Amino acid sequence: LVIGVAAEKAAGERRLPVVPDVIKKYAGLGARALVERGAGAEAHFPDEAFGDVAFADSGEDVYAGADVVLCVQPPSQKLIGKLKPGAVLVGMLQPWSDAKRVQAIAKRGVTAFALELLPRISRAQSMDVLSSQAAVAGYACALIAANHCPKFFPMLTYAAGSIRPARVLVIGAGVAGLQAIATARRIGAQVEGYDVRPETREQVESLGAKFVETGVDATGEGGYARELTADEKKQQAERLGKAIAQCDVLITTAAVPGRKAPVIVTKKMVEQMKDGAVVVDLAAETGGNVEGTVAGEEKRVGGVLIVGPTNIASRMPVHASEMLAKNLFNFISPFIKDGALTLDWEDEVMSGACLTHDGEVRHEGVRKALG
Ligand code: NAD
Fold it and tell me: How many Å lie between the centroid of ligand 1 and the Cα of residue 287?
């Protein structure tokens, strides 16, 4: 069984889907790795670190020669056209974003697993790429905020007195938000957190932050957040507005599964923020939680700076790759034995994450969404 890893081709993508330690684990299962030269360079894993693997000179050679191809982002049409019919493709395939690409993968006769589709059950936690990369993004966005903030995060005492800590407000206390809270706390800021799921209060408080109460409970299906009604939005805006006006740093991470990010912070709220305040909108790529966010840009609105970073996890490519590599290995390795891969459609994690198989788009939700 040949496991293929090509260098990621998307602009700015520095991660890779295996790291040398995990390559050894695949070898332990009887699989051989075929790695494009330089695939790990951007994540600081030079070719020599991979040890005894076969190298290919191009991504095309990897895609043509592998039985299982691992990737971070979806491959280009050109690479899809090189895959062996019957091959298996595993990665973050962005199943909702490009119908043509999904159809091309299906037509090629490839069995593709999009790990964004994993059922969110306890057993799948160790494979959950969304969570691992959200944790990286949450950490990184607290640092981005600290870097742009014209104030110290921690309290500082010096010979002429003391300086108060910066006030940081984090909206959305999922995996990314909690990591942003933890990181801002570690740097010494005074932190507040908010989410529409009331159970997050305890999680926010356990990190030493204060929970902002708005009285809105929008726990939806499966315990995830649902969209707010117009009345709830109004109530949320009234109560949150005050906290937003008082903070030095606002980090927004709110998301609703399968939907555009909710707009929580209006233009008017931004205008009421302090001069010098910094907003980091982690939801920039999916539309933004803040009115006026531009994905991939830094924008000034009066005295407020709004940062809309994209592909944040890629800024920490060493650990982001390590985490991804383990997620992918935990997903596929139970089905590899003595150098052979046996797919098991009775397995709810495997069947749940399946995007294409046997020439068809298998995932019902994606098939409907793509029309
Ligand atoms: P996410 O990235 O989907 O969303 C981020 C947060 O935004 C969520 O906490 C959500 O409640 C919040 N949000 C949505 N609308 C909001 C609004 N209008 N105002 C304020 N906040 C709003 O979330 P996530 O990080 O994937 O985690 C969500 C939950 O799923 C957590 O409880 C997490 O522990 C759980 N989870 C379970 C598994 C698993 O069992 N395999 C894996 C990952 C996450």
Answer: 17
pLDDT confidence of residue 249:
98
Model pTM above 0.80: yes
Does ipTM surpass 0.95 in this model? Answer: no
Q: What was the pLDDT predicted at 127?
A: 98
CA of 179 to the centre of ligand 1 (A): 12
Q: Whose CA is nearest to atom 2 of ligand 1?
A: 255
> What torsion, rounded to 10 degrees, do the Cα atoms 291, 294, 295, 300 define?
-100
Strands, E, within 50-188: which ranges? Answer: 54-56, 68-70, 88-91, 111-114, 156-158, 161-163, 167-171
Q: Is the CB of 124 under 6 A from ligand 1?
A: yes
Residue labelled with tokens 């260098």:
7
> Which residue among 136, 171, 175 has the greatest number of ligand 1 atoms within 8 angstroms of its CB, and so is best to mutate?
175
Tokens of 6: 């090509």
Give 142's contacts (C-beta < 8 A, 6+ positions apart): 168, 179, 180, 183, 184, 187, 251
First to last CA, the chain: 35
Looking at residue 256, its pLDDT comes to 81
What residues are annotated to the active site? 120, 125, 128, 131, 224
Give the whole-angstrom CA distance, residue 189 versus residue 198: 23
Measured by CA distance, the residue closest to atom 1 of ligand 1 is: 255
Classify 201 as helix, strand or coil: helix
Could you write out the three-class secondary structure of 215-276?
CCCCECHHHCECCCCHHHHHHHHHHHHHHHHHCCEEEECCCCCCCCCCCCECHHHHHCCCCC
- The ranges of the chain with pLDDT < 50 are none
Indicate whether residue 141 lines ligand 1 (CB < 6 A). Answer: no
105 lines ligand 1 (CB under 6 A): no
Check if 173 has its Cβ closer than 6 Å to any atom of ligand 1: yes
d(CA 37, CA 26): 19
Query: 319-343: per-residue pLDDT in tens?
Result: 999 999 999 999 999 999 999 999 9
Burial of 280 per CB tally in 10 Å (0-12, 13-18, 19+): buried
- Does residue 169 have its Cβ closer than 6 Å to ligand 1? no
Token output for 302 = 């009066």
Atom of ligand 1 at shortest distance to CA of 125?
41
Helix, strand counts (H, E) of the chain: 12, 19
